[in-house]
From TrEMBL:
<dbReference type="GO" id="GO:0004984">
    <property type="term" value="F:olfactory receptor activity"/>
</dbReference>
<keyword id="KW-0812">Transmembrane</keyword>
<feature type="transmembrane region" description="Helical">
    <location>
        <begin position="232"/>
        <end position="250"/>
    </location>
</feature>
<dbReference type="GO" id="GO:0016020">
    <property type="term" value="C:membrane"/>
</dbReference>
<dbReference type="InterPro" id="IPR017452">
    <property type="entry name" value="GPCR_Rhodpsn_7TM"/>
</dbReference>
<dbReference type="InterPro" id="IPR000276">
    <property type="entry name" value="GPCR_Rhodpsn"/>
</dbReference>
<feature type="transmembrane region" description="Helical">
    <location>
        <begin position="88"/>
        <end position="106"/>
    </location>
</feature>
<dbReference type="InterPro" id="IPR052921">
    <property type="entry name" value="GPCR1_Superfamily_Member"/>
</dbReference>
<keyword id="KW-0472">Membrane</keyword>
<feature type="transmembrane region" description="Helical">
    <location>
        <begin position="28"/>
        <end position="49"/>
    </location>
</feature>
<feature type="domain" description="G-protein coupled receptors family 1 profile">
    <location>
        <begin position="40"/>
        <end position="288"/>
    </location>
</feature>
<feature type="transmembrane region" description="Helical">
    <location>
        <begin position="270"/>
        <end position="290"/>
    </location>
</feature>
<protein>
    <recommendedName>
        <fullName>G-protein coupled receptors family 1 profile domain-containing protein</fullName>
    </recommendedName>
</protein>
<dbReference type="Pfam" id="PF00001">
    <property type="entry name" value="7tm_1"/>
</dbReference>
<dbReference type="GO" id="GO:0004930">
    <property type="term" value="F:G protein-coupled receptor activity"/>
</dbReference>
<feature type="transmembrane region" description="Helical">
    <location>
        <begin position="139"/>
        <end position="160"/>
    </location>
</feature>
<feature type="transmembrane region" description="Helical">
    <location>
        <begin position="196"/>
        <end position="220"/>
    </location>
</feature>
Length: 321
């Protein structure tokens, strides 16, 4: 069975396989969910790139960056899920690529959430300075820093493995789990330390932004509605962060549930995969793709164009979150 994700969710030595019909059903569910989410994310990406007005708004640049990041993460984990059934074991070098992509994109989401929360805080609490602080150029610099912060801590796992393992190790086939590739115990402790630091900083950033906007919403009279919407957006980011954090406690939860329900280990692993790695990906389209008035208007327009095949005029921007 497949816990194809960046964290080990399968106890060492546990080789348990689903029946054919069960395995087929689980893979169909995963592929269907992937297809639905990929279609939604694809529509969001097309909407963004078809309207130049989004290119100049840091909020939407950060949003589409997260959508693309989540799409990559979803595709990689889905592919690993399927491969774990079809092939069970894959080449170590190929597994390294998949695992690192999954790790980078999984770690990327919380930091991107923090950046979006800061942008909302500046927009509501420092509106006169927003255009000066949140420029397009600085937004792309922030995205570069996000990727550096995601890649730097975990790429060292690869360097350590290259230095400590023989070349023949990379020609072997293994069940594709992070602990089966990066086996040094020191690396596990390092990952835990970085996870605690990153999520603590993101959590504090979201709490700070939420409280500041909450106070601003009470004080403002003319822009109270916008402040309340921004507050609700950050609250949803907090829910999204909590769901992202589940990926770091899910191995322990899974082991505990396995002890309580020893005959349900495969079902527990599958539920863990759906809840921890799939469900959070539904929130990104909801937070901005459907709740945001401006983006929703353009999205509907594009869907109508696609359905009818008739060009429509540009829609004037409206006030949003």
């Amino acid at each position: 069975m497949s816990s194809s994700q960046s964290n080990a969710t399968i106890p060492q030595g546990a080789v348990v396989r689903d029946a054919y019909v069960t395995a087929l059903l689980k893979n169909l569910i995963v592929v269907l969910v992937w297809f639905v989410l990929s279609s939604i994310n694809g529509s969001l990406v097309v909407t963004f790139f078809k309207h130049q007005g989004f290119y100049e708004d840091p909020r939407y640049i950060l949003f589409i960056h997260m959508v693309i990041n989540d799409a990559i993460q979803l595709t990689v984990t889905t592919l690993l899920f399927i491969l774990s059934y079809v092939l069970y074991k894959i080449n170590v070098a190929v597994c390294c690529v998949f695992i690192l992509l999954a790790v980078f994109t999984t770690r990327n989401t919380p930091i991107n959430l923090a950046s979006m929360a800061i942008e909302r805080y500046i927009s509501i609490c420092e509106p006169l300075r927003h255009a000066q602080i949140c420029t397009v150029r600085r937004t792309y610099i922030v995205i570069s820093l996000i990727w550096f912060m995601c890649v730097a801590p975990d790429i060292t796992d690869l360097f350590v493995t290259l230095a400590t393992e023989s070349l023949s190790f990379f020609h072997q086939s293994v069940f594709c789990l992070r602990n089966n590739i990066f086996k040094d115990p020191v690396l596990a402790h390092k990952r835990q330390a970085f996870d605690i630091i990153y999520f603590s900083l993101v959590f504090l950033t979201l709490v700070f932004s939420y409280l500041k906007i909450l106070f601003a919403a009470r004080a403002l009279s003319t822009e109270k509605t916008s402040a309340l919407r921004a507050r609700n957006t950050i609250l949803l980011h907090g829910v999204q962060l909590f769901m992202c954090m589940l990926s770091y406690i899910s191995p322990s939860v899974e082991i505990a549930l396995h002890l309580i329900f020893p005959g349900w280990i495969l079902e527990i692993r599958f539920a863990n995969y759906l809840i921890v790695y799939i469900l959070p990906r539904f929130l990104s389209p909801i937070i901005y793709g459907f709740r945001d008035k401006k983006f929703r208007k353009y999205l509907k327009m594009n869907l109508q164009i696609r359905r009818c095949g008739v060009p429509r005029p540009e829609v004037a921007p409206v006030n949003t979150l």
